Each structure stands twice: as C-alpha cells, then as structure tokens.
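Input record (one chain):
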Amino acid sequence: MIGHKIRPKAQLTEPSNPLGEADLRLWLSAEFNVSVAGGSVATWGDLSGNASGVAQSVAGSKPVDTATINSRHAIHFAAAGTQDFLNNSNVAALAPTAGVTLVMVARFTDLTAAIQFFGGRGDTGNHGYYMGRVNDGLSFHVGNGADNDAAKDVTEPAVNVPYIYTGKWDGTNIFIRRDGVQRAQKGFAGSLDYTLTPDFALGQITDYTVGRALTGDIAEVFVFGTALSNANCLLLEQYLGAKYAITVP
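The corresponding structure, as predicted from the sequence alone:
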C-alpha cells in the first residue's frame, strides 16, 4: 500500500492524488515514506505508485529531516562538504518525451551560490528537464538532444521564504509559474532527450557539478508526464498553498 507513514503525526492520513490520475509519474511528500536514521534521509518513497522514489547511500551526502514549512516536514539539503542529494537511475516513468510538468514546494536558505538546483532529470547541456536558480532567477530548463532553452522567472526568490514553483513544457513552449501565477514563457520545440541523463535527482542534477548543489528545503515534489493545463496547475497550486500557508490566487 502506498502512502505508509514513517512518522506518526496527529491527524496525518494517507493522501490521495489531488488531480486524480493526470499522468502522475512521481509524488514525494516529506510527511510520508521518508526513511530516517539519526536525522539523515536514506530514502524518500514515491506516493504515485510508480516506485519512482529517491535515495542516498553515501552518509556524507544524505540530506536531513530537520526542516518544516507551516509545521509540516521538509527535507533540508546542504551544499557544503560533499553536497547533499537524493536520486534514482533509469526510471522510465521519469523520462517523458512529449510533455512534462515539475512542481516543487521549496525554499532557499542561503543564496550565496549563484547557481543552485532544486532538481529534475537533466543536465546543463541539451538533455532532459530540471528546475533551479541560475544567477538571476528561477528557471525551468529542457533539452531535446541538439539544443536547450529555459523559461526564467527573473524575480529573485527571498531567502527562507517557501514558494510553489511549477515548470512545464508542452512540446512547443516552456513555462515557469510561481505561487499560481505564470512568470515566463519561452518557445522550444522537439522531444525531450535523456541520452546523458539517466538520473533523476533532488538537490542537484545529473552532472553533479561541485558548487551547484542546493542549500535549502524541499517539502513536496510532483512530476507529470504531460504538460498540465493552466487550470489543473492552479488546482494543484491551490492545494499546496492551503497545505503550506502560501498565498495562491
């Protein structure tokens, strides 16, 4: 049965997909399926039923279960030292080619590093998809094997403030949304290519470049194998806004 609680918590019940099916490929909530030993996270299990969860076996690279957003659990990633990240490899469900939507409830706790990745299944070249801060804003990036591009929200995030970020690509355009509002759109056509990106990662991306890891917290992650409509994006963002006390229209 999916949604098994690792931690007992008052009034906490097994969740259901807020959008029904909608081609949900991955759902991580820090309230559920987090295996913790000594505060360090070894695995974070998938609620979607696709067995797409993420893990970390290297002690020095494990994030910690010490953060909360609106009194709900969040996973803290630190870029210092060996860099914290969680990942999986060669999970077919996380390699959609014709459309994708990535939604995260996350915050930066330090913005000293100009480049920090929330994660995804992509690289800084021409492959896959990922979300992160690149110098002057939060971007959603996609690559078709021969080229890449990104939609960027150029308004800098504030330190220690949680946001709901939604990145999507529909085969023709890339979109980035923040807290229920579209922030940018960029034309980009083709099919997503994963030739050099077998890993889906959180706190990093596939190339694992030192100095580009996340210093911050992630509370919830969704991946859909299609570009959600704006109406469905807003439904999910409103659900998350109510859950984490983030204002959404």
